[in-house]
Amino acid sequence: MTQTPDAMMSAVSASLAARTGRSLREWVAVVRASGIDPLDQNAVRTWLRSAHGVPQNSQWAIADAAARDAGWVRPTVTEYIDSQYQGAKARLRPIYDALAAVVTGLGGDVTVEGRGTYTPFVRGRQFAAIAPAAAGRVDLGLRFTQPPDSGRIQPAKAPGQATHKASLSDVAEVDDEIKRLLQIAYDQNA
Fold first, then answer.
1. Are residues 58 and 82 in the same domain?
2. Which domain holds residue 90?
């Protein structure tokens, strides 16, 4: 069963001292003393990796805790999604909405998570992700254990945990083939 982001953070935080030699509280103090803006989580993660060799999941946990310590509040899933479809990308929101309706309609076990640049959809594990792209399209990431034949997908490493993706520039492209591909990804990731 996939853990929530908070549960994953708790698990990483609980073993942080054993893996890095410092507890989460100690790492937050190190970040605070570094002079790096704790609200710039990317800068904090980069610094933790380059200056201290901190592994990736630990970087995320430390950066999140340092930002929260500085007053940051994690956005809700809705706030994450709304922020992705602002400005020039606002016109892509109907594509996202159509895809999300299909994905969440696949089963009652689908959860939607929030991320800064894409929206993951999880069943036993992440099976789909939707991201607005700079080129005026939406990328639908799909995770397949056995990729189906389809001219609509190409191998990919993003968004999210995708093995393949389809790019859509119009809501009309959320058609039977895209629905079939989403169903296959859902079925393969129980």
1. no
2. 77-188
Read off the pTM: 0.76
Question: Which of 158, 147, 153, 152 is CA-nearest to residue 188?
Answer: 147
Nearest to 152 by CA among 134, 116, 129, 179: 179
Whether residue 86 is found in the same domain as residue 170? yes
Q: Are residues 121 and 30 in the same domain?
A: no
Task: Give the domain-ending residue among 69, 90, 120.
Answer: 69
Angle between helical axes of 5-14 and 56-69 (0-180°, round to 10): 100
Shared domain check, 93 and 65 = no
User: Two tokens at 133?
Assistant: 């792209």
Q: What is the DSSP string of 150-189?
A: -TT-EE-S-STT-SEEEEESSGGGS-HHHHHHHHHHHHHT
Pair (64, 85) in one structural domain: no
10-residue mean pLDDT profile of the chain (190 residues): values are: 60 79 93 95 94 88 92 90 94 97 96 92 94 92 96 94 96 98 96
Distance between CA atoms of residues 38 and 31, nearest Å = 7
Sheet holding 111-112, edge to edge: 111-112, 119-122, 126-133, 137-142, 164-168, 154-155
